[in-house]
Amino acid sequence: MASSIQTNLVALQTARLIGEASRTASKTMYSVSSGLRVARAQDDAASMAISTSLRGQIQGMGSCLINIQSADAALQTAESAMGQISEIIIRMRELATQALSEQLSGQNLADLNTEFQSLLNEINRIAQSTSYNGNAMLDGSFLNKKIQIATGTTTNDQILVTIADCQNTSTGLTGDITSQINAASAVAVINTVEATINTIRAQVGAAQSRFGFALNVASVTKENLIQANSAIVDLNVSEGMANLAVQLIRQSAGYQMLNRANQTPQDILVILRG
């Protein structure tokens, strides 16, 4: 390169390179301090767009996990209440079976029937009062409730839950045990109602099992989305630190070379005086 007094091209080029190294070092320091390779759209516009979409899906899956856990808690509430209804039915069968014995007096049967009727009322009370988050669970109103388990809007992204009516008028549980004939009828009714309650409990249990698997899938999906987003925007810290060291060395060397380049015109003057 020819020597010139008017234009110091070496110094200009060196200054440009120092500026590039300084800007790169500043960007790298920002990335290292934030832990992000892509912190702003200017860093990588395409990656930022993908990351924004992924973060939206991550937040959505977080909401789905809450939905699934809440639905499972609701079903557990219903199942526990039906467990108590089953226990009451077992006790009612005991009373009806006891009332079948002909050695009992009319007063004995009346006493047994008092508890029998009380238990009938208790089943209705449980069925009518069991609720979760303001939703009645066992009165027949919990029908086709949509539980969102994924971020989409298709039927595959939802689970429909229905819990049948457990009130006595629906299950057919009625009668008294004031006589052996009535007690025999009561035993037959109780056996039928017990099978009905067991079926409803089985349906609730199957829904709980389904939610358990849905929870696992949603958890893994969220984990994979987080991993994918991390691969796009997170900084490899060791790589970032190495790159920062390179840029700082370039800066330091550049300043030294700039100082030397600025001495070139002086060298030419020395030659001219020589």
Proportion in helices: over 70%
CATH H level of the largest domain: which superfamily?
f41 fragment of flagellin, N-terminal domain
Strand order of the largest sheet: 1-2
Report the end-to-end length measured between terminal Cα atoms.
Answer: 22 Å
Calculate Rg over CA atoms: 39 Å
Largest sheet: 2 strands, antiparallel
In short:
The strands form two sheets. A two-stranded antiparallel ribbon has the order 1-2.
Describe the structure.
With 274 residues, this protein is mainly alpha-helical. It is built from 7 helices and 4 strands; from the N terminus they run αααββββαααα. Helix 2 packs antiparallel against helix 5 (180-233). It starts with 8 loop residues before the first helix and ends with a helix.
Task: List the defining traits of the structure above.
274 residues, mainly alpha, f41 fragment of flagellin, N-terminal domain, 2 domains, two-stranded antiparallel sheet, 7 helices, 4% strand, rod-shaped
